[in-house]
């Protein structure tokens, strides 16, 4: 029996609607693969699950967008490489540099702000006043991390790259370097975990302050980054965001 043209049109519209619904359902069920290096207490793994305010904010925003997300912990340089090669969707907690902006995609809205300071041995403290005051010092830096350009151009400074924050703090405690550059909260958290807090001090004046982002892979659709930016901007206005970031903002006793 022949089907009238009008019914054909209705059937085509119904099928198209089902296809769109199916695509939307698949998108909402899609799981995003994120990577980072453990940066406790801001992002860490506890009882086999990701934790910390940077992760909690990221996860909450994606949930609001209808996406699941998974976080894999890898060394920092590997995290950057995986996202650069589109093997992972984004890096949690990345700073913004000119080189990275040319390769990766950033939302306008950051996850949070980071304060970077100078950790040194209590027996021979290095009090940061300006970069010229670091002349003659050996400063440890985490490999692959982004730092203020002044730390690279400061005259008379010997720079030594280390594998991670733990290594940098241990080298300071052992007197192998004069100081180590790290986020204030992260540095003190790791120092306490290593039992080194009583051997270290941190400069009251930060060497730099700036935002950290969820940094997306080169092939991430721009529209998706924009959607994430809008959702994050809205979430940062909520009481939930302020609660999640309370520990991040709290000053550490030295």
- Helix-strand pattern: HEEEHEHEHEEHEHEHEEHHH
CATH class of the largest domain equals Alpha Beta
**Roughly how many Å apart are the termini?**
85 Å
- From the coordinates shown, what is the CATH architecture of the largest domain? 3-Layer(aba) Sandwich
Helix content: 40-55%
β content, as a range? 15-25%
Task: Point out poorly predicted stretches.
Answer: 1-29, 250-254
Secondary-structure topology with pairs:
Blueprint: H1 5-29, E1 31-36, E2 44-46, E3 49-51, H2 53-65, E4 68-73, H3 76-84, E5 90-94, H4 98-103, E6 112-121, E7 138-142, H5 149-153, E8 158-162, H6 165-173, E9 179-183, H7 184-194, E10 200-202, E11 208-216, H8 222-235, H9 239-244, H10 246-249
Parallel strand pairs: 1-4, 1-5, 7-8, 7-9
Antiparallel strand pairs: 2-3, 5-11, 6-9, 6-10, 6-11
Give an overview in words:
- It is a single chain.
- The chain has 2 domains: about 30-110 and about 210-250, D-Maltodextrin-Binding Protein, domain 2 (3-Layer(aba) Sandwich); about 115-210, Periplasmic binding protein-like II (D-Maltodextrin-Binding Protein, domain 2, 3-Layer(aba) Sandwich), CATH 3.40.190.10.
- Helix content is about 40%, strand content about 25%.
- The chain contains 10 helices and 11 strands.
- The longest helix is centred in the N-terminal third of the chain and has 25 residues, at about 5-30.
- The radius of gyration is 23 Å and the shape is globular.
- The N and C termini lie far apart (about 85 Å).
- Mean pLDDT is about 85; it is low at about 1-30 and about 250-254.
């Amino acid at each position: 029996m022949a089907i009238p043209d009008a019914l054909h049109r209705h059937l085509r519209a119904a099928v198209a609607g089902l296809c769109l619904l199916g695509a939307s359902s698949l998108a909402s069920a899609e799981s995003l693969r994120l990577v980072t290096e453990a940066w406790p207490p801001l992002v860490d793994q506890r009882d086999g699950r990701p934790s910390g305010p940077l992760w909690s904010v990221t996860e909450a925003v994606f949930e609001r967008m209808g996406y699941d997300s998974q976080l894999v912990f890898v060394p920092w340089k590997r995290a950057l490489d995986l996202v650069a090669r589109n093997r992972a969707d984004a890096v949690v907690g990345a700073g913004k540099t000119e080189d990275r902006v040319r390769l990766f995609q950033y939302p306008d809205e950051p996850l949070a702000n980071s304060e970077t300071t100078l950790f040194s041995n209590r027996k021979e403290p290095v009090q940061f006043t300006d970069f010229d005051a670091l002349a003659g010092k050996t400063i440890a830096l985490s490999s692959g991390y982004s730092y203020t350009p002044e730390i690279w151009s400061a005259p008379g400074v010997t720079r030594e790259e280390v594998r991670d924050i733990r290594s940098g703090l241990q080298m300071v405690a052992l007197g192998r370097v004069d100081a180590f550059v790290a986020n204030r909260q992260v540095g003190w958290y790791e120092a306490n975990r290593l039992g080194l807090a009583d051997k270290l001090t941190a400069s009251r004046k930060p060497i730099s302050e700036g935002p950290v982002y969820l940094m997306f892979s080169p092939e991430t659709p721009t529209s998706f980054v924009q959607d994430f930016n809008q959702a994050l901007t809205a979430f940062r206005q909520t009481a939930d965001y302020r609660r999640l970031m309370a520990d991040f903002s709290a000053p550490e006793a030295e």
